[in-house]
Amino acid sequence: DMMREVLGLKELERKIKKKLPVEDVIVVVGDSDQSPWVKREMGRACVSRIKHSLKGNDIVAVTGGTTLAAVAEMMTPDVKYRDVLFVPARGGLGEDVTNQANTICARMAEKAMGHYRLLHVPDQLSAETYQSIIEEPAIKEVLELIKSSTIVIHGIGDAKTMAERRKTPPEEMTKIEQSKAVAEAFGYYFNQHGEVVHKVNTVGIQLEDVRHVPCVIAVAGGASKAKAIQAYMKQANRCILITDEGAAKQLVRDN
Ligand code: F6P
Q1: Which atom of ligand 1 lies at the shortest distance from residue 166's CA?
Q2: What is the per-residue burial (b if ≥16 Cβ within 10 Å, else e) of 118-127?
Q3: What ipTM goes with this model?
Q4: Whose CA is nearest to atom 2 of ligand 1?
Q5: pTM exceeds 0.90
Q6: pLDDT in tens, 52-62
Q7: From the CA of 193, how far away is ligand 1's center (Å)?
C-alpha cells in the first residue's frame, strides 16, 4: 500500500471517489491502451476483490470482452469457490468466441475450481423462436440463476468501438451515433449523462436487475475509455470500479 501511495495511485483513487458516485475504486499502474499486460493487472486486482466479497454460495455473472478475458486468466483456485456458480451475464452480443461471456465464464470457473452453467441462445432470432427458446426449461433455469446473481463482473466499452466491433447493422449504427452514445455495457448504450439511448436485445441480466445485485464490479481501463467510464458511472448504483492509471488520469482531467 505504501508503494501504491508513492506511485500516486491512492491519490488518483481519492480524486475519482470525489468525482464519480462509485462505491469503491482500485487503480492499477499503467495504461491498457498502451500496454496489454495492464489488463492482467486489473484482472489480478479484480480477482482479489471478488474473493473479498464471496459469501460462500454466490452466483457470479460475467460479461464478455478482452478485459474480462484477462480477469479469467488471472483467476486462481480457492476453497471459497467450492460452492460458487459462474454464469454468463447475458446472451451473445456479437463477440468472437474467445471474448464471449460463455467462454469467459467457463474459463473463470475452471481456474477457480468452481462450477458453471452456460447460456445456449443464438444471437439473431425471430420473435417467435426467441419466445419459445426462453420457455425451454433448461434455458429458463439458467436465466433464473442469472437473475439471482449475487456478484456481477462486467466490462465497459467506448460506444463507437463496441458498435463497430459487433458489426452493428447500418440503421442501428446511425441511431447510436445520432443519439451521441459514448458508453456501452451489458449491450446497453449510454449518452454522456448516463441515459440509455440504445439496447441490444438479448436474454440474460437486464440493467434494472443489475441495480439490485449486492456486489457489482466494473473492470475497464485505458485513457480511451475515460468518457465511457464516466458516463456509465452516472447511472450505476454502488459499483466498484477497477481501472488503470491511463483511464484514471484522463478521468480526473476531464470535466
Ligand atoms: O461485449 C461484451 C462487453 O463486456 C461489453 O459490454 C463491453 O463494452 C466490452 O465487452 C468491453 O470489451 P473490452 O474489455 O475488450 O474493451
Answers
A1: 1
A2: bbebeeebee
A3: 0.99
A4: 64
A5: yes
A6: 999 989 999 99
A7: 20
